[in-house]
Write a structure and sequence with these properties.
246 residues; alpha+beta; Arc Repressor Mutant, subunit A; Chorismate lyase; 2 domains; 6-stranded antiparallel β-sheet; 7 helices; 29% strand
Length: 246
């Protein structure tokens, strides 16, 4: 007996929430230049009337657009299309091990220092500690094969990672370990092009006059400062990539 083929049941598309409809309408208009940077956008009242939704719904859509840096809201005045120079880019700096292995190349890390030290003034200030308080200090070099790609000079707050000094960094990198024990809630960084220190040039096997890309980054987990790290990359060997998507 021949069975008739049956087609799978059709799935009913899930309708977007009202606030998402308003948000997407405004976002599309911004993408297509309907509202130039700095110009006044439709009022909340106008959007309520246009979409037949509540003021709370419109307010949520505008709040999310504001948090994404796409609009600016001025109380009592209205909503404005954000100035282009105020759009915030998201820079993702991956762990060096992931960066190297994603290219299909062998990775290794050499640890040159791993000990407890007295916090110098800058570190104590960043961690909110008294100068001289015991903190952890490590110095490592990350390699792609036999080529040194990054010199990592890191200070760690013992309150956030008490077992840092006893960690086996042949199995994981400092970044991987810290993300596991103290997930990042806040981070700040600076990026500059400068010359390496004599020690950094020696560890990276480069001339002391070779320009380097230097990233200084600090992180906080649940209100507790975690780490302050200086990452030095030879300019001829490393490309720092970022991505922006409104």
């Amino acid at each position: 007996m021949k069975r008739e083929a049956t087609s799978p049941p059709r799935r009913t598309p899930v309708a977007a929430a009202p606030y998402q409809v308003v948000k997407q309408h405004l976002k599309t208009g911004l993408e297509h230049g309907r509202w130039k940077p700095g110009t006044l956008m439709p009022s909340e009242s106008a959007l309520v009337t246009q979409f037949g939704v509540s003021r709370m719904t419109v307010n949520r859509a505008l709040r999310e657009l504001q948090s994404e840096g796409l609009v600016e809201r001025v109380q009592g005045v209205g909503t404005f299309a954000a100035q282009l120079h105020k759009l915030s880019a998201t820079l993702s700096i991956r762990d060096m091990r992931e960066h190297v292995e994603s290219r299909g190349l062998p990775y290794r890390m050499g640890v040159h220092l791993l000990r407890e030290e007295s916090a110098p003034p800058m570190v104590a200030q960043r961690f909110g500690l008294k100068e001289g308080t015991p903190v952890f200090h490590s110095l490592a070099v990350h390699y792609e094969g036999d080529v040194p790609l990054q010199c990592e000079d890191r200070w760690v707050n013992p309150a956030a990672a008490p077992h840092y000094l006893s960690t086996d960094f042949s199995a994981s990198t400092p970044t991987q370990y810290l993300l596991e024990v103290a997930p990042t809630w806040e981070a700040s960084y600076t990026i500059e092009a400068t010359m390496p220190s004599r020690q950094e040039a020696r560890l990276l096997k480069i001339d002391a006059t070779e320009p380097c890309l230097v990233v200084t980054r600090s992180t906080v987990s649940r209100g507790t400062p975690v780490t302050l790290v200086r990452l030095v990359h030879p300019g001829s060997r490393y490309l720092l990539e970022g991505r922006f998507q409104p």
